[in-house]
Amino acid sequence: MAKKVLIIETSLRAGSNSDILAESFAKGARKAGNDVEVISLKGKKIGFCTGCFACQQKGRCVIEDDANEITEKILEAEVVVWSTPIYYYEMSGQMKTMIDRANSLYPRDYKFREVYLLSVAAEDESHTDEKAVSGVNGWVDCFEKAVFKGKVFAGGVNERKEIEGHKALAEAYAMGKSV
């Protein structure tokens, strides 16, 4: 049965390696017959969470910017895929900001059950993405009906489009196809 898949590209760089990785996942997910939407944070206005918790009563953030529309798409997706460059061994700041701004999802009837992480970095050590994985798992832990299903990490890529030909593209495609 087809699933509604939402892929959130958090890199702000045009032609980014993480976007290319996300597109590979999207191709696999579409090949499997899923309904796939890709959203980029490029050009979006997303302010920082102020910790007011009004979202818990209102069901949406009181800050009027693009985060509310993206949060509604997360609410309706069955599968959420985060794609990020790794900065200083952690997810991008804009990804963390979007996760924080999606706090209104907590008390709501969210549909997502599966969460994935796609990441890239110039560094290529086996532990390079551990903190980003931990951060996504921390988010998933707050949603008892959701589970972290997997990750694909592409190390050793830094320059724009350097990921082309990297084995992680095939991994992301296969993971997307298995959704």
Explained architecture:
The chain has 179 residues and is α/β, with parallel strands linked by helices. It has one domain (4-177): 3-Layer(aba) Sandwich (Rossmann fold), CATH 3.40.50. Helix content is 34%, strand content 20%. It contains 6 helices and 5 strands. It has helices spanning 17-31, 55-58, 67-76, 93-101, 130-141, 167-177, and strands at 4-9, 35-40, 79-85, 114-121, 147-155. A 5-stranded parallel sheet has the order 2-1-3-4-5, sandwiched between helices. Helix 1 packs parallel to helix 6 (167-177). The radius of gyration is 15 Å and the shape is globular.
H/E series = EHEHHEHEHEH
* Strand order in space, largest sheet: 2-1-3-4-5
Which overall shape is indicated by the principal axes computed on the Cα atoms?
globular
Number of helices: 6
Give short descriptive properties of this protein.
179 residues; alpha/beta; Rossmann fold; 5-stranded parallel sheet; 5 strands; 20% strand
In short:
This protein is an alpha/beta fold. The protein has six helices and five strands, in the order E-H-E-H-H-E-H-E-H-E-H.
How would you summarize the topology of this molecule?
Blueprint: E1 4-9, H1 17-31, E2 35-40, H2 55-58, H3 67-76, E3 79-85, H4 93-101, E4 114-121, H5 130-141, E5 147-155, H6 167-177
Parallel strand pairs: 1-2, 1-3, 3-4, 4-5
Helix pairs in contact: 1-6
